[in-house]
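Q: Sequence in, structure out?
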Amino acid sequence: MPSDVIIKVKCPVYLIRFQESFFEIPQGQPICYPKRHHFNDVLDQFLEMPALDAPNDPDYGEETLCILLRNLEEKNVHCYNYLSRAKARAFIWQIWAFYRVTVRTELTKLILLKVQKQDAIAIFMEKYHIPEASQGMIEKDYQRHIKLTSKKRLLRIKKNLSV
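A: Exactly. Output:
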């Protein structure tokens, strides 16, 4: 059950749009993660009591990710509702890792359906409302993924042949 506590974290815009689309949240509304989602477990570990000098309501402009906290099992979110800079960075990295896996999985599925890579990226960006400025980043990451997987496959084949 969601509480009424909202925390704000600085996050790249493409990750915010991705989460809003993935969790079907209207744009601009705080994100509330599903009950048994991994991000709730991460927040349960990372949330701490705010320091006396902590900003009350930070505003990062367009890069502000608003998260509606769920009532956690081990912590009272009315007291534990602060992420330090390091923990906020680690949480954003968790979001980015989830995003990266989703991008690679969905692009691979589309390409296996014989969709051109450029079209697959455009479809992904349209589905998750990713800004156009992120297209080059997605292309480079997917190309890196293809190179690494083929290299791993090649090394695995060589390893099996030498045994």
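Helices lie at 13-22, 38-46, 85-112, 117-127, 135-162.
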